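Query structure, 302 tokens:
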């Protein structure tokens, strides 16, 4: 009898443990972000126990991105969905709209004052979506986003990791300003593959010229290339830059066009614009991506 009672207690304990494990799994919070940039920031702002997934991997262009069936499953399983907004994920707008009726679906840009956004030159009524290139503006957006998530989940805000990360964004912003202010104003001109760096230019005093517009949906035409060649020669630009999400073909055509007119302009390197670098590299996280870009620009324009 004692043995039967002992076995019964063991069985009850086992069932209780299994029940607890199921409860923990059920209470696990899963957040799916559209871009790797957002996902990386959330990993540094939210508790370690939160599962954070990203739809778009290294080098993926969010302007052109269409979710796969596996991505749709990630969105369905998520407790919270986070995206950039401002039409960056243009081909996902209907999906995100439908998701917002079923679960918290949050845009980083919704936590920003519209007065601080840059209006699109090509699309009336729309704004430039590349908000992560103004470090202080981005800090404001992701802090508001994380505040909202903490409030929804009823988590305590006393998170040292979160505070340290927000401080690191401000520190990096100061580092960028200090470095670029040391470059003569006439040399602070950035020519890139597409117009992703307007926020960066406004925040840190650099004139930015993009061969394509703010979206990569349309390719640069012959007139765009000719205008860029003229601008480079007139302003004696030393270097131009390609981007990790855009074909280098048009920029190389600009370099060749300059050469045909007797002016040599260098390829300054690759900038990370709308997507992070490969996992495990210095450019594989948001802070590292920004540092890489600034160092690459500085090494070529001064």
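Result returned for the query:
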């Amino acid at each position: 009898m004692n043995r039967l009672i002992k076995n019964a207690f063991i069985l009850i304990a086992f069932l209780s443990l299994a029940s607890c494990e199921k409860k923990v799994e059920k209470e696990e919070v899963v957040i799916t972000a559209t871009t790797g940039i957002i996902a990386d920031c959330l990993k540094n702002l939210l508790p370690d126990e939160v599962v954070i997934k990203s739809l778009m991997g290294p080098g993926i262009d969010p302007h052109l991105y269409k979710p796969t069936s596996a991505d749709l499953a990630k969105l369905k399983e998520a407790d919270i969905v986070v995206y950039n907004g401002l039409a960056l994920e243009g081909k996902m707008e209907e999906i995100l709209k439908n998701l917002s009726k079923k679960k918290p679906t949050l845009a980083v840009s919704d936590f920003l004052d519209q007065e601080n956004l840059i209006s699109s030159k090509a699309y009336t009524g729309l704004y430039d979506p590349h908000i992560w290139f103004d470090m202080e503006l981005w800090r404001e957006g992701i802090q508001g986003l994380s505040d909202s998530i903490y409030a929804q989940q009823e988590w305590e805000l006393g998170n040292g990791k979160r505070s340290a990360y927000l401080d690191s964004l401000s520190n990096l912003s100061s580092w960028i300003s200090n470095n670029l202010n040391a470059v003569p104003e006439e040399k602070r001109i950035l020519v890139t593959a597409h117009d992703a760096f307007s926020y960066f230019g406004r925040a840190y005093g650099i004139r930015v010229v993009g061969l394509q517009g703010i979206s990569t949906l349309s390719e640069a035409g012959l007139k765009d290339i000719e205008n860029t060649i003229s601008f480079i020669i007139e302003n004696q630009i030393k270097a131009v830059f390609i981007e990790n999400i855009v074909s280098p073909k048009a920029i190389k055509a600009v370099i060749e066009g300059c050469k045909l007119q007797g002016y040599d302009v260098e390829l300054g390197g690759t900038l990370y614009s709308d997507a992070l670098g490969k996992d495990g590299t210095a450019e594989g996280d948001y802070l590292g991506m920004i540092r890489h870009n600034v160092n690459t620009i500085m090494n070529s324009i001064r």
